[in-house]
# Entry
Amino acid sequence: MTRSVIYILTPIIGLFYMNQVEAQNSIKVKKSKEAIESNNPKGHLSTLEGYVPSMSVTKDGKTAYFSQSNEQKPLYGVFSKKEMIHEVYRAEKINGEWSNITKLKVCPKYASAKHPTISEDGKRLFFASNMRGSYGKYDIYVADIKADGSLGVSKNLGPKVNTKEDELYPNLHNGTLLFFASEGRDGFGGLDLYATQVSYNSLTTSVNLGSHINSSRDDYAIQLNTKKGESYVVSNRGQNHTIEQITVAYRRKPMDDTMVAYSNENLKSVLDTKTSNEYTSTSFDE
# Structure
């Protein structure tokens, strides 16, 4: 059987550079309303970070989560240069405009947190952080969102997800299937896309989405359209490593024995897998 793969290269449009967020006595954001409203739903490009995902918005459209970077002096070293630190923020939509922008304490000071994504029920926030206690560089963490909007303890998802290298760009599908990018496993090259099923306090072993989805370059994020049998992958596999969105059909099974989650049968098996493995111990509690 011939494997059916459809690649349609469409450059991400509306490149946008959000202004840095400055936290003082009260959070001040340069052109914050314009920045959030103009944010491309497909994400945007940054000369410093490459692909930056779009903000994550709750189902009711009233709350958004996003990350911003700024330079800070490190904790040690009087003559040390400033380092780029990433921080997670929440914004509320009031009278049709984004306001009440607040920095969230999801990790210790001088550590970074980025790429937040909210669960469908609005009760959990997943993000990547390099805080002390991580398995490698950036790990995927989760924190419960309390009724008052504050966050609970940040918990590391553990070795079934995280490795000694970077795990980034968490994104939820159908409430339980967590997609993320990893460069710490034997994949197809650069960042590969993986999936794990998550529920409260448990998750399954991560599954590589296979050569039908991943490439020899960096693959950052994926969205599924199960009705069309298509996935939309953000990757830098474009000419000169440009970051583009690629449409990939996943209707047919692969020709090899690679574990994948793109076919209907394999995707269903990932979704239906029973979870029994708890997250790792507490990592950060403000």
About this structure: The chain has two helices and 22 strands.
